[in-house]
Amino acid sequence: MATASASSTISLLSTRSTTTPRASPIPAPSFPRLFSSFAPSNPISLSLSSTSPHSISPKRSSSSSSSTLSVSAEKKNVLIVNTNSGGHAVIGFYFARELLSSGHDVTVLTVGEEGSDKMKKPPFTRFSELTSAGGKTVWGDPAEVGKAVGGAAFDVVLENNGKDLDTVKPVADWAKSAGVGQFLYISSAGIYKTSDELPHVEGDPVKGDASHVSVEKYIAELSFSSWAVFRPQYMTGSGNNKDCEEWFFDRIVRGRPVLLPGSGMQLTNISHVRDLSSMLSSAVANPAAASGNIFNCVSDRAVTFKGLVKLCSQAAGIEAKIVYYDPKAVGIDAKKAFPFRNMHFYAEPRAAKEKLGWSSSTNLAEDLKERFKEYISIGRDKKQIKFDIDDKILEALKVPVAV
């Protein structure tokens, strides 16, 4: 457990399989929700809530209500406006690949220029998988989306680029004027207000000043025949170019301790990107059921920081050493030292299960094995990496590190 001083607690994680429940992903409960009382330097205190509010904005959901999904087998022409950076780019790639395999026509409009350095990274280096399957890839300015796609008509548009209204509005306005029937938007689960009641469910309070919020509101007001908003959290999967599990592998393969802020028992949610893609595809197949809804685009399990270290250790086949620390005591900003929020932060895909009949396929233990193979194949285990912040923390804790 963590301490309030600069002293550290060290534990070793064996790669041998155990039955310790904390090491594996923890199911995020549907009912009741959990109350948490967590401070970074104190153990977690969890108790069960006697109530379970689960309203969904802007449509109210009821776990007792029954609905019949109307699945469309109609071939559709789909446009994906895809970001050229960050972790969300891989969502568009997987979504396009899944749509193409289902017989839809797909065009991916990537922000910027095809010859830019950003296109030398995955998932852009794998766009040949889309074109060989019949998909189209174009580049351009989303503010002039009509020009970029050459006046083509689309049934569905996924906006997977903008984080603010100035960026998304031109795309949404064009889609509305062009007669697009369904508009989907990738938002973020990060807009939920910090709460003592977990997991976050659709309808929970959001931060009024979050830029995604104004975008969600604007899309709802445009009155598309069908519209939906998706709020992803952390993700993993081949082609992702934003560090998640790599941060842990970087330390484990080099024999360095994995530094965890607080107790290491903070809960978070990591989803394989195929889950995000399948949820989006479910919305395309069920436009009526999806319409007017907000979906937490996440898997249905949570995992602790400590559990994630163990899963990464098992995937790599290398024993991991954990050092716990209090960020305030060592004078380090946890945001700069650790890839996840230093708090309980996880959402539940309640709306997708109830309204789309969707289910998760994320299996972190197996998914991380896939990611470690790719980590080795690209030679990242041999790459020179600086651990300056880690070293400052270890120095403050007086923990020696073999060089």
From TrEMBL:
Gene Ontology BP term (one): monosaccharide metabolic process
What's one Pfam family here? Epimerase
The terms describing its cellular component in GO are: cytosol
**Residue span(s) of domain NAD-dependent epimerase/dehydratase:** 86-297
InterPro entries noted in UniProt: Epimerase_deHydtase, NAD(P)-bd_dom_sf
Compositional bias, Low complexity, is annotated for 1-23
Region annotation Disordered: where it falls in the sequence: 1-26, 49-68
Which domain of life does the UniProt lineage start with? Eukaryota
Matches recorded under Gene3D superfamilies: NAD(P)-binding Rossmann-like Domain
- UniProt GO MF annotations: UDP-glucose 4-epimerase activity
Xref: PANTHER family: CHLOROPLAST STEM-LOOP BINDING PROTEIN OF 41 KDA A, CHLOROPLASTIC, UDP-GLUCOSE 4-EPIMERASE
Q: What is this protein called?
A: Chloroplast stem-loop binding protein of 41 kDa a, chloroplastic
